[in-house]
Design a protein that fits this description.
The chain is 79% helix and 0% strand. It has 13 helices and no strands. Helix 1 (6-33) runs antiparallel to helix 13 (243-280). The radius of gyration is 23 Å and the shape is globular. The model is unreliable at 277-281 (pLDDT under 50).
Protein backbone atom coordinates (compact mmCIF):
# COMPACT_ATOMS: atom_id res chain seq x y z
CA UNK A 1 0.00 0.00 0.00
CA UNK A 2 1.43 3.38 -1.03
CA UNK A 3 2.06 5.85 1.80
CA UNK A 4 0.42 9.26 1.20
CA UNK A 5 2.80 12.18 0.61
CA UNK A 6 4.01 14.00 3.72
CA UNK A 7 2.15 17.22 2.86
CA UNK A 8 -1.13 15.31 2.64
CA UNK A 9 -0.56 13.71 6.03
CA UNK A 10 0.29 17.09 7.58
CA UNK A 11 -2.82 18.68 6.05
CA UNK A 12 -5.03 15.84 7.26
CA UNK A 13 -3.59 15.97 10.78
CA UNK A 14 -4.01 19.75 10.86
CA UNK A 15 -7.66 19.59 9.79
CA UNK A 16 -8.42 16.86 12.32
CA UNK A 17 -6.72 18.87 15.07
CA UNK A 18 -8.78 21.95 14.25
CA UNK A 19 -11.97 19.87 14.20
CA UNK A 20 -11.08 18.25 17.54
CA UNK A 21 -10.44 21.66 19.12
CA UNK A 22 -13.72 22.98 17.73
CA UNK A 23 -15.74 20.16 19.29
CA UNK A 24 -13.78 19.68 22.53
CA UNK A 25 -13.34 23.33 23.56
CA UNK A 26 -16.99 23.73 24.70
CA UNK A 27 -16.73 20.48 26.68
CA UNK A 28 -13.54 21.72 28.34
CA UNK A 29 -15.19 25.04 29.23
CA UNK A 30 -18.16 23.16 30.66
CA UNK A 31 -15.92 20.92 32.78
CA UNK A 32 -13.98 23.92 34.12
CA UNK A 33 -17.07 26.05 34.78
CA UNK A 34 -18.83 23.23 36.63
CA UNK A 35 -16.16 23.45 39.36
CA UNK A 36 -16.88 27.15 40.09
CA UNK A 37 -19.44 28.95 42.21
CA UNK A 38 -21.67 31.61 40.71
CA UNK A 39 -19.31 34.52 41.52
CA UNK A 40 -16.30 32.77 39.98
CA UNK A 41 -18.38 31.71 36.99
CA UNK A 42 -18.79 35.35 35.93
CA UNK A 43 -15.76 36.93 37.58
CA UNK A 44 -12.85 34.70 36.49
CA UNK A 45 -11.25 33.52 33.28
CA UNK A 46 -13.60 31.02 31.68
CA UNK A 47 -10.98 28.53 30.55
CA UNK A 48 -9.16 28.03 33.85
CA UNK A 49 -10.03 26.89 37.33
CA UNK A 50 -10.77 29.18 40.27
CA UNK A 51 -11.27 27.66 43.73
CA UNK A 52 -12.32 24.32 42.20
CA UNK A 53 -14.57 22.11 44.30
CA UNK A 54 -16.14 19.79 41.70
CA UNK A 55 -17.69 17.29 44.10
CA UNK A 56 -19.30 20.00 46.21
CA UNK A 57 -20.64 21.86 43.15
CA UNK A 58 -22.06 18.76 41.48
CA UNK A 59 -23.41 17.48 44.79
CA UNK A 60 -25.33 20.73 45.19
CA UNK A 61 -26.86 20.21 41.73
CA UNK A 62 -28.07 16.73 42.68
CA UNK A 63 -29.59 17.80 46.01
CA UNK A 64 -31.20 21.09 44.98
CA UNK A 65 -35.00 21.24 45.35
CA UNK A 66 -35.24 17.75 46.88
CA UNK A 67 -33.16 16.18 44.12
CA UNK A 68 -35.35 17.27 41.19
CA UNK A 69 -32.36 17.00 38.83
CA UNK A 70 -32.09 13.28 39.52
CA UNK A 71 -35.75 12.88 38.56
CA UNK A 72 -35.20 14.79 35.33
CA UNK A 73 -32.13 12.69 34.62
CA UNK A 74 -34.08 9.47 35.21
CA UNK A 75 -36.86 10.76 32.93
CA UNK A 76 -34.34 11.42 30.16
CA UNK A 77 -32.91 7.92 30.55
CA UNK A 78 -36.44 6.51 30.36
CA UNK A 79 -37.42 8.52 27.28
CA UNK A 80 -34.15 7.99 25.42
CA UNK A 81 -33.49 4.40 26.48
CA UNK A 82 -36.92 2.95 25.79
CA UNK A 83 -37.56 5.19 22.78
CA UNK A 84 -34.23 4.42 21.10
CA UNK A 85 -34.54 0.67 21.76
CA UNK A 86 -38.08 0.50 20.37
CA UNK A 87 -37.18 2.71 17.40
CA UNK A 88 -34.19 0.50 16.58
CA UNK A 89 -36.22 -2.72 16.63
CA UNK A 90 -39.05 -1.22 14.58
CA UNK A 91 -36.59 0.26 12.08
CA UNK A 92 -34.76 -3.08 11.82
CA UNK A 93 -37.99 -4.98 11.13
CA UNK A 94 -39.27 -2.42 8.63
CA UNK A 95 -35.93 -2.06 6.86
CA UNK A 96 -35.43 -5.81 6.66
CA UNK A 97 -38.93 -6.29 5.23
CA UNK A 98 -38.46 -3.53 2.65
CA UNK A 99 -35.11 -4.99 1.61
CA UNK A 100 -35.90 -8.71 1.49
CA UNK A 101 -39.64 -9.18 0.87
CA UNK A 102 -41.03 -8.06 -2.49
CA UNK A 103 -44.63 -6.88 -2.29
CA UNK A 104 -46.90 -4.52 -4.19
CA UNK A 105 -46.31 -0.88 -3.24
CA UNK A 106 -42.92 -1.51 -1.62
CA UNK A 107 -41.22 1.40 -3.37
CA UNK A 108 -44.15 3.68 -2.55
CA UNK A 109 -43.79 2.82 1.11
CA UNK A 110 -40.07 3.50 0.92
CA UNK A 111 -40.69 6.91 -0.68
CA UNK A 112 -43.06 7.77 2.15
CA UNK A 113 -40.30 6.85 4.61
CA UNK A 114 -37.89 9.14 2.73
CA UNK A 115 -40.44 11.95 2.98
CA UNK A 116 -40.51 11.35 6.73
CA UNK A 117 -36.73 11.77 6.86
CA UNK A 118 -37.00 15.18 5.20
CA UNK A 119 -39.85 16.39 7.42
CA UNK A 120 -38.56 18.39 10.43
CA UNK A 121 -39.66 17.18 13.82
CA UNK A 122 -40.65 20.67 14.95
CA UNK A 123 -43.34 20.75 12.24
CA UNK A 124 -44.98 17.69 13.81
CA UNK A 125 -44.88 18.80 17.45
CA UNK A 126 -48.12 20.80 17.43
CA UNK A 127 -50.19 18.23 15.46
CA UNK A 128 -48.88 15.54 17.79
CA UNK A 129 -49.96 17.59 20.79
CA UNK A 130 -53.52 17.91 19.48
CA UNK A 131 -53.60 14.17 18.71
CA UNK A 132 -52.30 13.16 22.13
CA UNK A 133 -54.58 15.66 23.82
CA UNK A 134 -57.62 14.09 22.14
CA UNK A 135 -56.41 10.67 23.29
CA UNK A 136 -55.91 11.89 26.85
CA UNK A 137 -52.15 11.24 26.73
CA UNK A 138 -50.87 14.82 26.82
CA UNK A 139 -48.77 15.64 29.90
CA UNK A 140 -47.92 11.98 30.45
CA UNK A 141 -44.81 9.89 29.86
CA UNK A 142 -46.46 8.43 26.74
CA UNK A 143 -46.55 11.86 25.09
CA UNK A 144 -42.75 11.83 24.80
CA UNK A 145 -42.16 8.08 24.65
CA UNK A 146 -44.39 7.18 21.70
CA UNK A 147 -43.07 9.77 19.19
CA UNK A 148 -39.53 8.67 20.06
CA UNK A 149 -40.20 5.11 18.91
CA UNK A 150 -40.47 6.20 15.26
CA UNK A 151 -37.32 6.80 13.23
CA UNK A 152 -37.75 7.24 9.45
CA UNK A 153 -34.00 7.65 9.08
CA UNK A 154 -33.53 4.37 10.93
CA UNK A 155 -35.86 2.57 8.52
CA UNK A 156 -34.00 4.06 5.57
CA UNK A 157 -30.59 3.09 6.94
CA UNK A 158 -31.69 -0.44 7.86
CA UNK A 159 -33.16 -1.03 4.42
CA UNK A 160 -29.97 0.10 2.69
CA UNK A 161 -27.75 -1.93 5.03
CA UNK A 162 -29.90 -5.07 4.88
CA UNK A 163 -29.82 -4.98 1.09
CA UNK A 164 -26.02 -5.00 1.11
CA UNK A 165 -25.19 -7.08 4.20
CA UNK A 166 -27.81 -9.85 4.29
CA UNK A 167 -27.31 -12.31 1.38
CA UNK A 168 -30.47 -13.75 -0.18
CA UNK A 169 -28.73 -17.13 -0.49
CA UNK A 170 -28.26 -17.26 3.29
CA UNK A 171 -31.96 -16.61 3.85
CA UNK A 172 -32.92 -19.32 1.37
CA UNK A 173 -30.60 -21.79 3.08
CA UNK A 174 -32.25 -21.00 6.42
CA UNK A 175 -35.70 -21.58 4.91
CA UNK A 176 -34.60 -24.90 3.46
CA UNK A 177 -33.42 -25.91 6.95
CA UNK A 178 -36.93 -25.21 8.23
CA UNK A 179 -36.43 -21.83 9.93
CA UNK A 180 -39.45 -19.54 10.01
CA UNK A 181 -39.37 -15.91 8.96
CA UNK A 182 -39.40 -14.63 12.53
CA UNK A 183 -36.48 -16.83 13.49
CA UNK A 184 -34.56 -15.83 10.35
CA UNK A 185 -34.98 -12.16 11.21
CA UNK A 186 -34.12 -12.63 14.89
CA UNK A 187 -31.09 -14.88 14.43
CA UNK A 188 -29.66 -13.85 11.06
CA UNK A 189 -31.04 -10.45 10.18
CA UNK A 190 -30.41 -8.70 13.48
CA UNK A 191 -26.94 -10.21 13.81
CA UNK A 192 -25.80 -9.21 10.33
CA UNK A 193 -27.33 -5.73 10.70
CA UNK A 194 -25.63 -4.99 14.04
CA UNK A 195 -23.49 -2.00 12.86
CA UNK A 196 -26.56 -0.35 11.34
CA UNK A 197 -28.64 -1.04 14.45
CA UNK A 198 -25.98 0.51 16.69
CA UNK A 199 -25.97 3.58 14.46
CA UNK A 200 -29.75 3.89 14.58
CA UNK A 201 -29.78 3.42 18.36
CA UNK A 202 -27.13 6.08 18.94
CA UNK A 203 -28.72 8.59 16.59
CA UNK A 204 -32.15 8.09 18.12
CA UNK A 205 -30.83 8.13 21.70
CA UNK A 206 -28.99 11.41 21.09
CA UNK A 207 -32.02 12.87 19.29
CA UNK A 208 -34.39 12.05 22.14
CA UNK A 209 -31.90 13.02 24.86
CA UNK A 210 -31.33 16.46 23.31
CA UNK A 211 -34.94 16.99 22.27
CA UNK A 212 -36.32 20.15 23.85
CA UNK A 213 -39.25 21.32 21.76
CA UNK A 214 -41.44 18.20 21.91
CA UNK A 215 -41.35 17.91 25.74
CA UNK A 216 -41.93 21.67 25.95
CA UNK A 217 -45.12 21.30 23.93
CA UNK A 218 -46.33 18.06 25.49
CA UNK A 219 -45.53 18.46 29.19
CA UNK A 220 -46.68 20.89 31.86
CA UNK A 221 -45.89 18.78 34.93
CA UNK A 222 -42.30 19.55 35.93
CA UNK A 223 -41.96 16.06 37.44
CA UNK A 224 -42.12 14.64 33.90
CA UNK A 225 -39.49 16.99 32.43
CA UNK A 226 -36.35 15.58 30.81
CA UNK A 227 -32.97 17.10 31.65
CA UNK A 228 -32.89 19.61 28.78
CA UNK A 229 -36.26 21.12 29.60
CA UNK A 230 -35.52 21.12 33.32
CA UNK A 231 -32.23 23.00 32.86
CA UNK A 232 -34.04 25.58 30.75
CA UNK A 233 -36.51 26.21 33.57
CA UNK A 234 -33.59 26.79 35.93
CA UNK A 235 -32.16 29.32 33.50
CA UNK A 236 -35.50 31.13 33.47
CA UNK A 237 -35.37 31.61 37.25
CA UNK A 238 -31.66 32.40 37.43
CA UNK A 239 -32.20 36.18 37.43
CA UNK A 240 -33.98 35.87 40.78
CA UNK A 241 -31.80 33.01 42.09
CA UNK A 242 -28.27 33.50 40.65
CA UNK A 243 -27.09 30.19 42.11
CA UNK A 244 -29.13 28.49 39.39
CA UNK A 245 -26.54 29.63 36.82
CA UNK A 246 -24.01 27.44 38.61
CA UNK A 247 -26.47 24.55 38.88
CA UNK A 248 -27.37 24.81 35.20
CA UNK A 249 -23.73 24.55 34.15
CA UNK A 250 -23.14 21.60 36.47
CA UNK A 251 -26.31 19.89 35.28
CA UNK A 252 -25.29 20.41 31.65
CA UNK A 253 -21.96 18.69 32.35
CA UNK A 254 -23.69 15.71 33.97
CA UNK A 255 -26.13 15.48 31.06
CA UNK A 256 -23.39 14.77 28.51
CA UNK A 257 -21.92 11.86 30.47
CA UNK A 258 -24.41 9.20 29.20
CA UNK A 259 -23.72 10.22 25.60
CA UNK A 260 -19.96 9.95 26.14
CA UNK A 261 -20.35 6.51 27.75
CA UNK A 262 -22.54 5.23 24.91
CA UNK A 263 -20.15 6.49 22.27
CA UNK A 264 -17.18 4.92 24.06
CA UNK A 265 -18.72 1.47 24.46
CA UNK A 266 -20.59 1.20 21.15
CA UNK A 267 -18.05 2.63 18.71
CA UNK A 268 -16.32 -0.77 18.43
CA UNK A 269 -19.36 -2.07 16.54
CA UNK A 270 -18.84 0.67 13.96
CA UNK A 271 -15.20 -0.30 13.56
CA UNK A 272 -16.19 -3.95 13.20
CA UNK A 273 -18.78 -3.06 10.56
CA UNK A 274 -16.32 -0.95 8.61
CA UNK A 275 -13.71 -3.71 8.72
CA UNK A 276 -16.26 -6.29 7.52
CA UNK A 277 -17.29 -3.97 4.73
CA UNK A 278 -13.68 -3.54 3.66
CA UNK A 279 -13.15 -7.33 3.56
CA UNK A 280 -16.33 -7.87 1.54
CA UNK A 281 -15.33 -5.20 -0.94
Amino acid sequence: MTTPPLRHRILTASLLTVAALYFLTPVYWLAVSATKNTADLFGTFGFWFAHPHPLDRLGAVLTYDHGVYLRWFANSLLYAGIGATAATLLAAAAGFALAKYPFRGRETVFRVVLAGVLLPGTALALPLYFLFSDLGLADTYWAVLLPGTVSPFGVYLCRIYATAAVPDALLEAARIDGAGETRIFATLGLRLMTPALVTVFLFQFVHIWNNYFLPLVMLSDSRLYPVQLGLTTWTGYADRHPVLYQYTVGGALLSVIPLMILMTFLQRYWRTGLADGGLKA
